[in-house]
Amino acid sequence: GTAFADAVPPAGSRSYDVIVIGGGFAGVTAARELKAKGKRTLILEARDRVGGRAWTSTFSGVPIEFGATWIHPSQTLIWNEVQRLGIAKVDDPFPDFTVFATESGGYAKQDLAFLEHQDALLRRFVEGAEQYLPQPYDPFQRADLLVDLDKLTLGDRARQLRLSTLEQNWVSATTGAYGGGFERGSLTQLAHWWALCGYDTETFHGINVTRPVGGLSGVIGKMLAETGATIVYNAPVSKVADNGSRVQVTANGLVYDAGAVVVAVPVNVWNSINFSAGLPAEFGRMSTQTVGVPTAKKILIQVQGDIGRPLVNGKSGALLDLVIANAEKSSQGSVLIGFSVNPNLDANNLSQIQSAVSEVLPGTEVLSVKGHDWGKDAYAKGGWTFRRPGQLLGSLRTVRQPYGRLIFAGSDIATGWAGYVDGAIESGIQAGAIAAGLSGPGAPA
Ligand SMILES: Cc1cc2nc3c(=O)[nH]c(=O)nc-3n(C[C@H](O)[C@H](O)[C@H](O)COP(=O)(O)OP(=O)(O)OC[C@H]3O[C@@H](n4cnc5c(N)ncnc54)[C@H](O)[C@@H]3O)c2cc1C
């Protein structure tokens, strides 16, 4: 690994070519690009680990992911990375039944063929995306066609389509829940993912199947070892001061300085850092509006006995939006993974989660739970990226531009797979290249 990991560089040697703030996939990728350009690079990471919203841990004796989990060949940057690092991949087994809302307001077990109803509704949501998002990696190609569309929430779209309550409940787990609620997420974000999936239902589901063995923390650990950067853990950056020729970065009361800084923290966190030279209004606005879903939670649920492999599609506004089976079982039986964007769910409240599970999988006894509330996590303040109405055309292009000696990075502001590890790598590559130019000799003073 890195020779200086965990050591705080002594006074007098806190000067670097480039400082990268945040050691998620975007920051670590940027640091690696900078190494390739011969730059002395420092990573300042708030946590005691790298990976950010990708975090491999264990629960009830089985390995689990608290954040990002799956990769897919259409996500070429992360897929090739895993391939190149010689890390094996494994497919999660298919579910064996599904659970959907019923006419009478409850839930019923269905065979997998029932999923076709959900897919048909999903395709109606994103109909026309081939025309208005013809180039998945350049969402601005037909900006002219997006002017009205980018104003729509997913709920607006459901109303446009005149979906019944039951239809909305059937499609909630793959639309509203992704967006942090029907009234939060934008239609264009869903359509953008659809475009990246080749406008194809099978790929849309296929992106949630394949995992790198050892988890995504294993992948980023190997990437970090290649950066050759100095990394300081437990170093939350509180202040960034760009004086025009150098940038001073403060963490834990210590001041570091560099010719350029890559800010690779989540958009939702931008407003908790003091950018003392000021930033264009779009930055603060985007951070206030949020990009990462602020109510996103992932909950690991250990249950009694083997209950098979459910795929539960919660109703719009349910406590649990999606419940699936973890690939590995514990010694007690099945382990379930719940996703929730409901602000009222306490991700570690066993009795609340027991009643939510009983509603959708009657007779299932919950033994233990362990959840992570990404919105309450000070260094994330949200989960996966899902842009809000107006952000694609409104702020995204501005915040992707370097501002003085600062370059912002992260999956949240990727133009490709925003909301996925692949987008973080995309953004890290771009930011690293720009920062190398800014920090080098002949850089604008
Ligand atoms: C529940 C969940 C499930 C997901 N599932 C998938 C999936 O299956 N596949 C997929 O590809 N993606 C998935 N994602 C999305 C994926 O996790 C993110 O897109 C990606 O990890 C973001 O990387 P990043 O580097 O842009 O940001 P982050 O990973 O958030 O990295 C930012 C880093 O900055 C650090 N930081 C924050 N504030 C400061 C500060 N003040 N000073 C210093 N450091 C700071 C953080 O600690 C963190 O390490 C999921 C996300 C969640 C939450």
Automatic annotation (TrEMBL):
<dbReference type="InterPro" id="IPR050703">
    <property type="entry name" value="Flavin_MAO"/>
</dbReference>
<dbReference type="InterPro" id="IPR001613">
    <property type="entry name" value="Flavin_amine_oxidase"/>
</dbReference>
<dbReference type="Pfam" id="PF01593">
    <property type="entry name" value="Amino_oxidase"/>
</dbReference>
<dbReference type="GO" id="GO:0016491">
    <property type="term" value="F:oxidoreductase activity"/>
</dbReference>
<feature type="domain" description="Amine oxidase">
    <location>
        <begin position="25"/>
        <end position="431"/>
    </location>
</feature>
<feature type="binding site">
    <location>
        <position position="237"/>
    </location>
    <ligand>
        <name>FAD</name>
    </ligand>
</feature>
<keyword id="KW-0560">Oxidoreductase</keyword>
<protein>
    <submittedName>
        <fullName>Amine oxidase</fullName>
    </submittedName>
</protein>
<dbReference type="InterPro" id="IPR002937">
    <property type="entry name" value="Amino_oxidase"/>
</dbReference>
<feature type="binding site">
    <location>
        <begin position="45"/>
        <end position="46"/>
    </location>
    <ligand>
        <name>FAD</name>
    </ligand>
</feature>
<dbReference type="InterPro" id="IPR036188">
    <property type="entry name" value="FAD/NAD-bd_sf"/>
</dbReference>
<keyword id="KW-0732">Signal</keyword>
<dbReference type="InterPro" id="IPR006311">
    <property type="entry name" value="TAT_signal"/>
</dbReference>
<feature type="binding site">
    <location>
        <position position="339"/>
    </location>
    <ligand>
        <name>substrate</name>
    </ligand>
</feature>
<comment type="similarity">
    <text>Belongs to the flavin monoamine oxidase family.</text>
</comment>
